[in-house]
Design a protein that fits this description.
Elements: E1 9-18, H1 23-33, E2 40-45, E3 52-61, H2 63-75, E4 79-84, H3 85-88, E5 91-102, H4 106-117, E6 121-125, E7 129-136, H5 138-149, E8 153-158, E9 162-165
Antiparallel strand pairs: 1-3, 1-4, 2-3, 5-7, 5-8, 5-9, 6-7
């Protein structure tokens, strides 16, 4: 009997949890203990009283493994709900990056030209460098960073992905 190997697919999970000490470590530990990779992770409080947080995790897994991940997350006591935004349909994903670029002369002009094309904002500038803020899809940010590598990339800081489902329904 030949067992077909399932292909890993990228999924974005939105996990609504009680905002309590240790919950992030428990969730990350669940992934680590089972050998699941977290490609991106962001956390923020989502209620006025700061009692509930939203954890957004991007991971790659086969459908079978993803089903296990969601099931195990659902069983954790402080977890209210797990949404697989990828499986549930249309959603919006964005990431923010701060990109520091050195440049004088033609390199400086090219960095500024590229920043306009990618709608990156200059948030700091010196005589010999810029810090750009760029938001968008991971692919857009990857390409912006790649191009800045050709004109004087110094350093990059990225937020990780945030995502939300389209439409009227709340997580």
């Amino acid at each position: 009997m030949h067992i077909k190997e399932e292909k890993a697919e990228r999924h974005t999970l939105a996990i609504i949890v009680d905002n309590e000490p240790g919950i992030l470590a428990r969730i990350a530990g669940l992934f680590t203990a089972r050998g699941y990779n977290i490609e991106s992770l962001t956390v923020s409080e989502i209620t006025d009283d700061k009692s509930v947080s939203r954890i957004t995790i991007v991971t790659s897994a086969s459908p079978h493994v993803l089903e296990q991940i969601v099931s195990q997350l659902d069983r954790l006591v402080p977890v209210h709900k797990v949404h697989d935004l990828t499986a549930e349909g249309d959603h919006v994903e964005r990431e923010l990056a701060l990109v520091k670029v050195a440049g004088t002369g033609d390199h400086r002009i090219e960095a500024l030209r590229l920043s306009e094309v990618y709608r990156a904002r200059v948030v700091d500038a010196t005589i010999s460098s810029f810090v750009f803020e760029v938001t968008g899809t991971t692919e857009k940010i990857d390409k912006f960073i790649e191009l800045m590598g050709e004109v004087g990339l110094i350093e990059v800081a990225r937020t990780g992905i945030v995502a939300i489902a389209r439409g009227r329904e709340a997580a």
